[in-house]
UniProtKB/TrEMBL annotation:
<feature type="domain" description="HotDog ACOT-type">
    <location>
        <begin position="1"/>
        <end position="109"/>
    </location>
</feature>
<keyword id="KW-0719">Serine esterase</keyword>
<dbReference type="InterPro" id="IPR029069">
    <property type="entry name" value="HotDog_dom_sf"/>
</dbReference>
<dbReference type="InterPro" id="IPR006683">
    <property type="entry name" value="Thioestr_dom"/>
</dbReference>
<dbReference type="GO" id="GO:0052816">
    <property type="term" value="F:long-chain fatty acyl-CoA hydrolase activity"/>
</dbReference>
<dbReference type="GO" id="GO:0052689">
    <property type="term" value="F:carboxylic ester hydrolase activity"/>
</dbReference>
<keyword id="KW-0443">Lipid metabolism</keyword>
<feature type="active site">
    <location>
        <position position="196"/>
    </location>
</feature>
<keyword id="KW-0963">Cytoplasm</keyword>
<dbReference type="GO" id="GO:0005829">
    <property type="term" value="C:cytosol"/>
</dbReference>
<protein>
    <recommendedName>
        <fullName>palmitoyl-CoA hydrolase</fullName>
        <ecNumber>3.1.2.2</ecNumber>
    </recommendedName>
</protein>
<keyword id="KW-0378">Hydrolase</keyword>
<dbReference type="InterPro" id="IPR033120">
    <property type="entry name" value="HOTDOG_ACOT"/>
</dbReference>
<keyword id="KW-0677">Repeat</keyword>
<feature type="active site">
    <location>
        <position position="7"/>
    </location>
</feature>
<dbReference type="GO" id="GO:0009062">
    <property type="term" value="P:fatty acid catabolic process"/>
</dbReference>
<dbReference type="Pfam" id="PF03061">
    <property type="entry name" value="4HBT"/>
</dbReference>
Amino acid sequence: MRPDDANVAGNVHGGTVLKMIEEAGAIISTRHCNSGTGEPCVAALARVERTDFLSPMCIGEVANVSAEITYTSKHSVEVQVNVMSENILTGAKKVTNKATLWYVPLSLKNVNKVVEVPPIQYARKEQEDEGRKRYEEQKLDRLETKQRNGDVIMPVINPEPHTVGYSQSSLIHLVGPSDCTLLGFVHGGVTMKLMDEVAGIVAARHCKTNIVTASVDAINFHEKIKKGSVITISGRMTFTSNKSMEIEVFVDADPFVDEPQERYRAVSAFFTYVSLSKEGKTLPVPQLLVLGSAAPQPASMDRGAP
């Protein structure tokens, strides 16, 4: 990990870790989906389950990312990814992240066609049954999340400190070739890194301290984002406890100029951050003041945070 991977306190950005996790998941999924006799394809990220940041990673440490396919349905792949950091001076190792990701294979000839996934062999019948249950649960949650994705973040004039409007932030990004897969769509890891960056700005504005990612709730990828699109990543505070902050982040995409499609909601997620002192100890979080129209919708406020 290099200095440009971390914040001013030397902690590696959560978005950098998320990007590495997604790259590992994409590689193993694409490799598996092309192991059969079907047509060539590329695995596209559909969802990331809750990801906990178990331990901070620092500048100078080496990240070891391992991935394993744990379930396949007809058109999707579940991948478990573990991240371990290693201090190459002392040899000390620690697990920093564990995540579960879901991918769907898209044909190289027709990007709108989802191809079939080669099955895997399970050591026990129970493993397949448990995987099928997880598949049905995430499928239902993705549908419910997409149905409530109508919110937008409006600017607030002269917002008061510690209100939603005071810390809310947005980032506009032009999707270039280096952001995309072979199919010309944005890498899920690139999107997640930008989302974490916006969430971090929201948290830092609210606390005025060093902040780090503590966890990420399910990240749902509702629609593909094409090369050349302009994406707007927006974040707002939705909940604070004594020691943590929950931030809603969503990505809206404006397609090509010549395309008839209007702006659409592409990705949504909730990030949890904690505030740290210079010594790395958790600090109390200023309580969120909910005022007027800048307040999030009740569905977000009811979620709470750890």
